Amino acid sequence: MAQPPYVPHAPGKAARHYSSPPQRLGGWRADRPGELADGPLPAGEGFGYQGPDQGYALRLAKHFAPQLRLHDGEKPGDVVAGCAMVALKRASLFGRAPVAADLEVAFDHWRYLDAAAPIEVVASRRELFAGAGGHDGYPIRCRIADEVSPGALGAP
After folding, report:
1. Residues 6+ apart with CB under 8 A from 135
2. Which residues have C-beta within 8 Å of that of residue 54, sequence separation ≥ 6?
3. Local confidence pLDDT in tens for the 156 residues of the chain
4. Is the four-CA dihedral 45, 154, 152, 96 of positive or negative sign?
5. Inter-residue contact 17 to 2 (CB < 8 Å)
6. Torsion over CA of 108, 113, 114 and 115, rounded to 10 degrees?
7. Which residues have a Cβ under 8 Å from the Cβ of 109 and sit 6 or more positions away?
8. Packing angle, helices 56-64 and 76-93, rounded to 10
9. For residues 64 and 71, what is the distance between their CA atoms, to the nearest angstrom?
10. Which backbone phi and psi does 138 adopt, to 5 degrees?
11. What is the largest CA-CA distance in the chain?
């Protein structure tokens, strides 16, 4: 590794400088064991919903936080994390990055933007979303997303 000029070096030893590795001839091929060949992404339990720029969903979800109509026992962090996962599922069904409409559909599905949500909906979502925002809440978030059918998300 090259040594910055401000770092002292031992007397009598020349500083090392960067040199490029030798050029490799031929083209690049995806032939390593971990490379995915052309085709669909892997699916199944624990794989979640793949798509581009998924972290953006959390940023978008924070803009909805002031509009959420929460009841006793519901935590904003759990609601945002769970609905963000539903939004990611919707975005991946359409093959794109998440947008604000994905979050709106997710919050609407669980009636978090509705002040007059039925008490049975509130009771079921309170139990389902409990712990979704925690550091070990990934399985909970996946279960929340699995509860919503692609048809309910407007998928073709």
Report:
1. none
2. 88, 91, 97, 98
3. 566 777 777 777 766 667 778 887 887 776 777 776 666 767 777 777 778 888 899 999 989 999 999 999 999 999 999 999 999 999 988 989 999 999 999 999 999 999 889 999 999 999 999 999 999 999 999 999 999 999 999 876
4. positive
5. yes
6. 160
7. 86, 148, 152, 153
8. 130
9. 16
10. -60, -45
11. 80
User: Token pair of 134, please?
Assistant: 């925690």
DSSP string, 20-61: PPPPPPS-----STTPPPSSPPP-STTT----TTTTHHHHHH
Q: What is the pTM of this model?
A: 0.72
